[in-house]
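dude i think i finally got it to work??
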Amino acid sequence: MAISLADLLGYAASCAVLATFLMRTMAPLRLVAILSNVLFLVFGYIDQIYPVFFLHMALLPINTWRFVAAKTGETALTERARLAPPAVSWHHGASRYALWFAVGLLAGLVSTFAVLIMANARVL
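look at this
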């Protein structure tokens, strides 16, 4: 039984996701998450598993942004916000999550349209 390149990529990507759950610090976690995103992108593309492909297309910029933010000191700002009075902290946190929700929603919509365009191109 021969294992295909796509299968190897899928197993490697799955191992990278498993590794992220074993990380204790944010920067290495984000780097491994970025690696898993890239591996799943290639895996999804080769095996034409478009939900996997587009999910990781949306997750890759999010993980990259969060890695850059962690390296540039945004974590110190987050810690100060956590120590702020609850009303201020909740509002700051809620707006941050709302932004990421909007980014994820937009990425999902764009990826859905991309799948439809690709599907129509293959049919034609």
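The chain has a mean pLDDT of 78.
im so relieved honestly
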